[in-house]
Amino acid sequence: MDLGLKGRKALVCAASKGMGRGCAEALAREGCEVWITARHADVLEATAASIRKATGARVTAVTGDIATEAGRQAALAACPEPDILVNNAGGPPTGDFRNFTRQDWDAALEANMLAPIFLIKATIDAMTRRGFGRIVNITSVTVKQPFASLALSNGARSGLTGFIAGLAREVARHNVTVNNLLPGSIATDRSEVFVASHAKARGISREAALAELEKEIPAGRFGTPEEFGEACAFLCSVQAGYITGQNILIDGGAYPGTF
């Protein structure tokens, strides 16, 4: 299927690896010109080179922390009027909320709620003027199924979700869609932390812990960054123009609810 994205400009945040990279590569494969951001220049440049080689697309690396004003300004200076914005940032630490400081909460809110809002604020009016825009926010399954140990993520990402619910309806008539992708267990560096934690708690090997966790997923496995990226690319397509304000789970069926 041709997603109708050839020549579109896409800004993908935190895209040196994992789900962000999956999204960037999928969009590049569809003919987008892509700008990717991340904090570590060496890894980011290597990723940009790899995506260029795989897709033939023009890919620009912009080093910076998207959770900071300086990082956002660098990204917007390189790609001031994207047609597609994919918001992404690393998840905050896990733990008992009683142990989190004000600084912990501020950092979580800055990275996982305020940074996406500020980037949307900087880009959405130009999208509405052009009559095309696609914004995808990578959040988490915890928006629908909170876990006590993920209190920082629960709070920050749910705040973003509430903001998006109102915004999406405001801009839909301009062919600008805003959706959230909610990853469950995706095979990324962060998922390895959870596998290691499970292994330690159970006193078992990493392989045995992974097998136990996979048994809890109806699909019987962790998802891949590549298939996550393909879902993102579809939400950015011309065919997805009637999908907006949605929270779409990418979790292999693990969420147990009906709604």
From TrEMBL:
Lineage: Bacteria, Pseudomonadati, Pseudomonadota, Alphaproteobacteria, Rhodospirillales
PANTHER family: 3-OXOACYL-(ACYL-CARRIER-PROTEIN) REDUCTASE, NADPH-DEPENDENT REDUCTASE BACG
Protein's UniProt name: Dehydrogenase
SUPFAM superfamilies per UniProt: NAD(P)-binding Rossmann-fold domains (SSF51735)
Family, as annotated: Belongs to the short-chain dehydrogenases/reductases (SDR) family.
Provenance organism: Hypericibacter adhaerens
Domain of life: Bacteria
Pfam families: adh_short_C2 (PF13561)
